[in-house]
Each structure stands twice: as structure tokens, then as C-alpha cells.
Predict the structure.
Amino acid sequence: MAQTRPEPDPMTPAPPRFLPLTADRLRRRFILVVSRDAVMERREARLQEIGLTAVAREAERSRPALARILDSTMAECIEQAARDAVAAMLRETGLASIGPARIETLSAPPEHDLVLRAEIATLPEISPPDPTGLRLERLVAAPSAAEVEDELHALARRRGAWQPLPPGAGAGAEDRLVCDVAATLLPARNAIPQPGILGARPGAPGRLPDEWTFGDNGAGLVTEVLAIEPAANPPHIRLRVQGTTTQEGQSYVIFHLPGAIPARPESSWVGSVALRPVGAPRGLRGSKLRLESQDSSAEGRLRRKDAALLAAGDGGFTRCYVSETFADAETAFLRMPLLFDHAAGTVDFCCDIGAPRLVEGLDLGEQGPLPLPALSGQAQLLGAGAADPAGLSAHLQGMKAGETREVTLRLPGGMADRALTGREARFVVRARAVLRRVLPPLDDALAQASGFAGLAALRGGIEARLADRATQLQRRQLRQAALHALLAEAGEIPLPEEAVAAETAAIWAGFAAAAAARGEAPDRVAAMALAAQRLRIGLLVAALARRHGLAPDAVALRAAATALGPGAAEAAVQARALEDTVVAFLLSRAQVTDRPASLAELMAAAEG
């Protein structure tokens, strides 16, 4: 017996409708329609939840507070209906949105249906290249006699014994300096060139402190320096801002001249100012302290961070802070303005302003040096492998036993306490002894100490280990070659910026940690390029798997879990196993030729 579709309930609001518009490869656009009745029904349910019956609403309609509740409830229901409509459209179309949809309201209840224009970013659909057209080069490396000897000498260095040098001998770069270190964190250097109130004069307008400037973006406001208090704590000026404006706007005080504060990419800064409101302000909607980076022109804005300012409850000064790490490679300068937001009409407010500070790294507001126990104590510096997070070793060559040396340096990134990055510290280093590694001879005794019968057997063991390492590197190099050839054959694959931003955020911690391990600052542009490459490879792998019906088996899943290590997310294991399966498929179809190479060349290619 044929089944019939039930007739729709005429009392039930119609579900959302959508109409696809013209789309490109990266963005899909739709018109969504939610019936007026559906939104009004949602609103009625919401009002009943908060206890506003129809009778109460009618009786109290004229009350402003109730009117605001009714308006906000309608806005809340329209917003929720819009989100639900987009979610329903995504479910029905099977699309995956990259980030939230961009929604524009074309019409809304209570007069009309809710009509929306929605745009979502999506990853493109691609057609993968034919694997038989791929040409790959497999690097073949056999350990050379020179590479075996290098490994043998490295073994001797590891087996070497540290012995003290005679008095008066200076420490070389490869020696080990046994020493006592006393580390002190120096007071933070305020980058504001003129943080006091030098040059200020009372009057209308009076004069702001040297290098301070006021601006109102053409609003027509005037300033008056009511008082200067150089002996107060903190020293400050009392500034009045007044006038009448035709529209809402913003005025500001900047505590330094353009381009006065240089900054490095990836540097972290803390800005602050002491602020105290005076009297009852008129037309002032709020204030905030801003920290922003600028490019080498000292005019182009790169990134900004705002912090709202709150007045102290006791009428005293509040020190307000804003902090940010500026990752942009173009960062060259910083700017720190104090901003006042005002409404249209009469503006009249007064405040005390003083002691602006801008500090690279951690700002503890300390007045004197602070001990750094984590960087103090007995240490062994210089030489490969020495634990030297502060970078002291470069300043200690030539020291002799009994000598004391004082070093002041800026603490680098990559330290355990990242808040100390960029701060200056003083180190007093007292050398106890200078040690030099004495290497054992390359003979049978060295071989026997390493578990081999003699020197010839040791060389054979080293050669076998290098050969095994070359085999592992060759697998990684061929995998990299297959994926890069696939990318090259596929050509340009456009990506939505939302997807690249999300992938960059996902890999940033690992990317930055790898850069720190190399002693480098992480490059966000390079991270974005890597993120885009990963996304393109993922799209090609998925497209090949769909076209050729590929799926990882249990063996591939176990191998992927082992490669990723304990604690890897199931989704990550599935993705790695699918990529392994597709790479194996590519290698079985591609044209592969061998080329002799050194171990160093093979290692570089495997890492690429």
C-alpha cells in the first residue's frame, strides 16, 4: 500500500525557506525566509517565560521600561530565528561553513516576514590530478666513509671526560665553565620618553607636558589645564575637555611623538596610565587605553588592543593597564593613546592624568631590582648542550677560574617564564673552574666500552645504524615528494581567509615552539603559508580518497596512532591514516626515479 505524505498542519508556522544565489568557489550566498508567524510565536513563548502576559503587556504598554523589554525580546527572537534558519539551511544542503555566516536582515517582524541574505565561506570542491602523471625523485643515500668517521668522532666526544684546566687558562667556546650566578631583574624601562609632567603649564588652553598631544578628530572641543601637581603621588595634570559637538566622536591624549617607541615583531608590551575622574562628566560615554603597533612609516596601523578604564571607588587614582603581543612581521613602532568616547551635544569632563608607562615584557611596577632565583645558583655554562636559557655563554668566553664578571642583557624568548621576555637582567658570574673535554683515542678500548669487539666492528655497527636511518629518511622524503608533486600538479587552489586563519591558530603553538627550539622568533607569515599548504593537501587527499574509494584499514589506523603518539585525538588519527593510505596509493601509481644523494641532502629533503 502506497504511503502518502501527511498534510501540513495549517496552525503550524512554515519552516524556513531558502533560495541559492550566485556563488563562487569560496562563498555561497542564500536568501532565507522565516515566516512572521514563526518569529512571533517564538516571541510569545519567550514573553511568557519571563512572566509578561498579554493583559499585563496591554495595561503597561506606555511604560518605557516595558517598551524596552518588548523591543529587546523581539530583537533576541529575530536573532535566534536567523541563526536557526542558517543552521537548517546548512543541514539541508550538507555544506560546512568556515566560521560564522555573514547575515544581513532585509526585512523583519512584526510587519513582515524575516528575510535574510546569508553568506558562508566554504572550502572549494576540487578535481584531483591523475596520479599516473606524477613524477617523483627518490633520494638514495648510502653512508660514506666520511660520515662513518664523523659519527665515530661524535661518539668519542660523548665518551670524553671533563678535566680542569690549569690556573690562568681562559675558557673557550667548547669548554665548560663551572660558576656561581646571581641574577637580578632590573627595574622595567619605561619607553615613554617623557612620563612626567615637565613643561606643563596651567591655563586655557594652558600647555600639556612635553611630547604630550591632544586631539579630537575635528569635533571642535577645547582643553584647559586646570592644575599641575608635580609633587603629588603620582605627579599629574588636571585636564578639562569641553565644547559642543554635532555627532558622537572621540578625543585623545597621546603621551609621545610619532615613531618615538621602536618595537620588534613578537615583542610583548604592557601600557598603563594613572587616571582619576574629577566631578560629574557631561557627554562622556567612556574611556579606554589603547596599545597599537605601527609599520616602519610610524603611520600605518597593524594591530590594536583596547582596555576600558574604570574609576576607583574611593575617588583615588586607578592605574589602568593594557597589554598585547605584536606578532606582525612589519611591526616597527608602538603608539599608546588615552581615548575618550563622547556623545553628540554638550561635552564637559575633567580628569587627572599622570605617570604613563610603556614597558616591554612584564611590568611589576617595581622600584628596585628583584632577585631571579630561577636563573641564579651554581651553573655549568659554555660548550654544546649547556643549560643557558638567558644566553649568558656568549659573554663568558675567556673567563678564568676565580674571576668575576658582570653581564647585563635583555632576556630572550623561550624562557620558562615567558613574562620575563624582553626585560633586562643583571648577572654576576663568579668562575669556580674551567673544564675541557679530553677525548679518548679511537681504538679497540673505545669500541669495547660501546659494546663492540673491536674498532672494525664499531665502524660496521655505525654504518648499519646510518643505513637504517637513511631508509627511514627515504620514506619521509618520498612522502614529502609525493605530496609536493600533488600540490604542483593540482595548480592554484584558492582558500577562504577564514579557513587559513583558523588553521593558523590551530598550528600556532607547535609552530612557535619549534621556532623557539631553533632560537628563532616565530614568523606568522610563514605559519599562514604552512597552514594554507596543509589545507590544500587535506583537500587533495580527501578528493583522491572519494574518487578512488580509498579508506584506511586497521593497520593504517594503528600506524597513524603510533606515529602521532599517545593522547592523539581520534580525528587526527583518522586524518593521518587517510593521508598515509592516499600517499601509498600515489606511490603505487606515480613514476619514481632514483638519484644518489648524501645523508645531509636526504635529511634536508625529508624535513621539507
User: Anything to note?
Assistant: Residues 455-490 form the longest helix (36 residues).
